[in-house]
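The following record pairs a protein chain with its ligand, pyridoxal-5'-phosphate.
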Amino acid sequence: MEYNFDKVINRKGTNSVKWEFMNDMFGTNDLLPLWVADMDFECPKPVIEAIQKRATHGIFGYSSNDYEEYYISIMNWMKKRYNWEIEKDWIVHTPGVVPALAICVQTFTNPGDQVIIQRPVYYPFTRVIVNNGRIISNNSLKYENNKYSIDYEDLERRAKDSTTKLMILCSPHNPVGRVWTKDELTKIGEICLRNNVILVSDEIHGDLVHSGNKHIPFTSISKDFEKNTIVCTALSKTFNLAGLNTSSIIIANEELRANFKKTSEDRNASPKPNPFGIVATQAAYNHGEEWLEQVIEYIEDNMSYIDEFLKDKLTKVKMIKSEGTYLAWLDFSDLGLSKDELWDIIVKKAKVGLDDGSIFGEEGIGFQRINVGCPRSILEECMNRIEKVLKE
Ligand SMILES: Cc1ncc(COP(=O)(O)O)c(C=O)c1O
């Protein structure tokens, strides 16, 4: 079937963080919101139907995903999309990827140990490290000629430090939109292996890759990487189901998996999956691909729209070429504005809610992240508002 992503759906009255709870972030609820990473699109029809069917039953007691068809839906998806053969036992449920990152930090490091991240990066990476009493080791991404890349020398130096125990990789990368190539991933993996650093690959955006790019699950690269890697996957970004709190963490190494599960059970009370997350997972992985192909095309068109808009009307603002995700990363630094001046323009004058780049680390100062997972008319309104204020 053909989905209509131009349709504007009123999300007010649904407890939407993006549309109704902006106040904490922006100090007002009166903004056009293109910030937090969920989309303003209905999810695939087979998923809606599966949830409706389950809801009709009327009893929502403790539920389990521990049955064959559930695992098979995930295994088939990975095989079909990535030619990645995973085993049923490797799949561990968590109520989200961020909880899984916290479990990794708690399990594979001790207080005072260092954990490598690559800023500017999804800001909860910092939170799960610092709030657990561990130390950030920041292998800043290199930004040259409007493109981001990895500083391997710095990465090796950081990995060599005897107190560095873990690296959290964002693959594809939020917010800079890079889809790392096999060569880049291989170099990272070898550095981690050489220095006994366990790698956690957050692949939550892995299914949302734009044409001409290829997402490679880290573990699929080699048997050696398989032993040293925890891959975090979820259907939350892929099928716009973030509120269902259902993720699949894929851990091939038996010892790492046993330790991960132990922390999850002992310290985090390992909540059972919710009944809607279970049926949604099966429906989305078994029947959601057609929707996904269409949504990616729509996102790519939205990305091109911004790029052309900027080239045409706001030449000092540059868009970083996006290879994946529905998050566009815009460079406002040529305007020479301070962080506060930029905030004033975007939030107070244009009245749009974007993620200010500084929340991803100081490397993000002068940037804004726009969530383009919305109908084109909303994106147009956002860009027009920004243009109007900047021209004034
Ligand atoms: C890289 C990355 N990891 C994790 C998450 C959130 O994961 P969850 O909601 O499953 O905790 C996001 C959401 O934006 C993200 O961008």
